[in-house]
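Sequence of DHA2 family efflux MFS transporter permease subunit (Glycomyces lechevalierae).
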Amino acid sequence: MAPVSARRRWWALLSLLFGLLVVGLDITILNVALPTLAVDLDASTADLQWIVDAFIVALAALLLPAGILGDRLGRKKVLLAGLAIFGLACGLATIADSVGVLIAARALMGVGAAVVMPVSIAVVPSMFQGAERTRAVALLTAGMAVGLPLGPLLGGWLLEHYWWGSVFLINLPLIVIGFFAIAFLLPESTDRNAPKLHLFATLAAVVGLAALVYGVIEAPVDGWLSASTLIGCLGGLALIAAFVASQVRSPEPMVDLGLFKDRAFLWGSMIATAASMLMMGALFLVPQYLQIVEGHSAFGTGLRLLPMIGGLMVGGLGAERLAARFGYRFTVIAGLVLSAAGCALATATDPGTGFGLVAIWLAVLGAGFGLSLVPATDAVLAALPPDRAAIGSALMQTLRQTGGAIGVAVFGSIASSVYRSELDLPPLPPEAAHAAEDSVAGAAAVAEALGSPETAQQAFDAFTDGMGAVFLVCAVLAVVVACAAGPRFPKHPGAEEAQSQHEPSRAA
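Predicted 3D structure, token representation.
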């Protein structure tokens, strides 16, 4: 690659920020639109889970293959293709007139995001060295992180003034700017030593994760022991096992499974995955509670999610100081215990609960996520040898996104199962009863159309029962991970990193 001037390097980095900002926005912007989609597209709870998870499943399954493709074919070309796919998918989502079309568009967005995320980071070492490289990676990471808290606020404001398609349309100007800036500013780069792309392994990962999520999402409707649920779950697990087996046997695997021999990488990845499960599960349910049960507007819902975002930022910033003073192990365990406490508080939420209590447990949850996620991620990155930093970082991101997809599927299905079992409707016409059983949004629409406040109250009670059950499971999960992973997590991974440089065999 020809040398690049300092000014052009930083302008090229700015162009990469546009793509990552869009991905960060898209991860959270849709959550406040779920109640609107439930009404406008007549979407059931399972449909809403798929609208969220189609994106995350594609993203999780394709992160590693997309990064390898960029290394081998040229990062600039592949990055432009990823942005084009993302833009086309946003356009399709904007004009979608059915749940099926929107789910397909969301899956296509996930494909584009899977390209943009790893390839944007992989470009940096070809343009920056030393301290500049560290600063560039930090700026790209911050660019994506900024999109996460902006998503609910921007989505709420758009839904307040425009139709739901605007939450996808808003991405297009940023994508166009990023596309042309990258085309003119970013130099091409490749890595001839990158591992080969394994087509079978990639297909097994994509289909396996999708089948597993399908089985879990459809379980409340078809039954947890139904043939479709068992085939989806067991078939998905079998394909994922086949993917792992193919990587173990391959002389040139896409995934370096040897990384899991390092204690910091293994337990740090587990903690980060669990935190992502909890966070995505909460973000799936809480906006529906605030918007449908409590009757807040979309923008009001976005504002009421700020305690969680604020807690996440405070926890993330405070984690560094706590880890420096008390060690990473203490900080991670404290974060998981705090998450469990927030989940336990959330179980006391009912229809009509004042926002004061909700704000408290949202803030506690956010702080717990930040305290556990930041040191876990930092420990994983510290454990990686320089020659395996890129693949190790991509693997951890894959695990986190997989955790998010499974979190939405599992916790959404638990909430749906409890909702259906606890729902005690007054006599209704068959079609109205079916709509009310499908989702709390459907029940609210039926109650309004028929003038039946009893229907609404029964649905709201059943929904909060389901949400309480989910948060109870989340509290137990956080405690289990704290007990299982916390004591095994290194107290000072930086010290272990230095030691591993003298004893390479331990990290291999």
